[in-house]
From TrEMBL:
This is Precorrin-6Y C5,15-methyltransferase (Decarboxylating). Keywords: Cobalamin biosynthesis, Methyltransferase, S-adenosyl-L-methionine, Transferase. Pathway: Cofactor biosynthesis; adenosylcobalamin biosynthesis. One of its GO terms (biological process) is cobalamin biosynthetic process. PANTHER family: COBALT-PRECORRIN-6B C(15)-METHYLTRANSFERASE (DECARBOXYLATING), COBALT-PRECORRIN-7 C(5)-METHYLTRANSFERASE.
Length: 407
């Protein structure tokens, strides 16, 4: 690697191809010994760009580029639009120091779509469905939600329209943009419940404003903690709505943080942790086979298919998992070794929250607090229910909530 300059340049290129590149991007291509990119992007380069052309391997991996790091070669990577927005530039930046790499972005297809529609990007949810389940979109489905979605392929718009209609947003009007910024740019519009295009161009983006059907109420869930209990499929092993909201407040999710949901039951804590921000991550640890199926269904239905499910019983199932920023123990605090394993795995400043309903589990938390500090809070919730011709308070079992921050 040459001292004092970046060996890697990531060049954003639009659908108009080489003609749309600026002077710096063209100079980088002419100076490069190797240019890596998708076959479509490499085909856009004129013959006078003499660099060796290396298409991305299948399956995709960046090691082909990183292999040039110790050589004296200048390397270019071609990427769609803005490489740092759902692009390979962001992937490479996690592996290459800033001083080794420079990025020359072009307008992204998301920026171009927002410009065509007159939408403010800061007020719009942006989602990539490339290599990701369509269910990831469900987190963004609620009244007046404005979404730009990068399609995986030409069939994505039809699948997306079907999902919207099934969720009660059939009145939503979709705009499908094909080949944005290029000579083949085209815009196709229609209602989700009357979508008429089975397959669009492979390179497309879908824009929509969520609108509920008049006859069918839409199931759009809030992003704040405390979803209704009937949002989940469960067998009764569910942290109930009000206690769940209090528990999430104590866990204090932040973007990018990882949660262990130990004894996850139906997965509600991990799911709402991930719904709080798109970058939040969670691992649900659950031994019961039927509840594992509940978690799989609930994570898809509530828009967080990336929730990782570990089938097993703590503490044995915790071995080898990525270190958490927070741990919730909803079941199993009395199992020998569970609290110790979770506390040991936590990073400094990480939070441990555990709920107890039985006398024995509460006693375990009291003893743990005596050794490690923290707070104990008794939560009692009553609900008004019919009693004859009147209403009376029905008290749920009190819950003891333990919280500690690891010093």
């Amino acid at each position: 690697m040459r001292s004092g300059r970046a060996w890697l340049t990531v060049v954003g290129i639009g659908d108009e191809g080489y003609a749309g590149l600026g002077r710096d991007a063209r100079r980088a291509l002419f100076d490069a010994a190797v240019v890596t990119g998708g076959a479509r992007h490499l085909a856009m380069l004129p013959a006078r760009v003499r660099a060796r052309r290396e298409p991305w391997p299948q399956p995709f991996a960046v090691e082909v580029v990183l292999g040039h790091r110790e050589s004296n070669l200048d390397v270019c990577v071609l990427a769609s639009g803005d490489p740092m927005l759902f692009g390979v530039g962001a992937t490479l930046a996690r592996r290459v120091a800033p001083g080794e790499m420079r990025v020359l972005p072009a307008p992204s297809s998301l920026s171009l779509a927002a410009a065509r529609l007159g939408w403010a990007m800061q007020d719009t949810a942006m989602v990539s469905l490339v290599g990701r389940p369509l269910d990831a979109l469900r987190r963004h489905l609620y009244a007046r939600s404005r979404v730009l979605a990068l399609s995986a392929d030409g069939r994505t718009p039809a699948a997306l329209a079907a999902l919207l209609a099934e969720a009660g947003f059939g009145a939503t009007r979709l705009c499908v943009f094909e080949h944005l910024g290029g000579p083949l740019e085209r815009r196709v519009e229609g209602r989700a419940d009357a979508w008429h295009v089975d397959e669009a161009a492979a390179l497309n983006l879908v824009a929509f404003d969520c609108e509920s059907d008049a006859q069918m109420p839409a199931q759009g869930w809030t992003l704040t903690p405390g979803l209704p209990d009937d949002a989940y499929r469960h067998d009764g092993q569910l942290t109930k709505r009000d206690v769940r909201a209090l528990t999430l407040a104590r866990l204090a999710p932040t973007p990018g943080a990882l949660l262990w949901d130990v004894g996850a039951g139906s997965g509600s804590i991990g799911i709402e942790w991930m719904r709080s921000h798109a970058a939040c991550r969670a691992i649900a640890i659950e031994a019961h086979a039927e509840r594992q199926r509940f978690i799989e269904r609930n994570r898809a239905a509530l828009g967080v298919p990336g929730l990782q499910l570990v089938a097993g019983r703590a503490p044995e199932a915790l071995a080898g998992l990525a270190a958490p920023d927070a741990v919730f123990i909803g079941g199993g605090v009395t199992v020998p070794g569970v609290l110790d394993a979770c506390w040991e795995a936590l990073a400094r400043g990480g939070r441990l929250v555990a709920n107890a309903v039985t006398v024995q589990s509460e006693a375990t938390l009291v003893a743990w607090r005596a050794r490690h500090g923290g707070t104990l809070t008794r939560v009692g919730i009553g609900e008004a229910q019919p009693l004859g011709g009147f209403d009376a308070w029905r008290q749920a079992l009190p819950v003891t909530l333990y919280e500690a921050v690891k010093p």
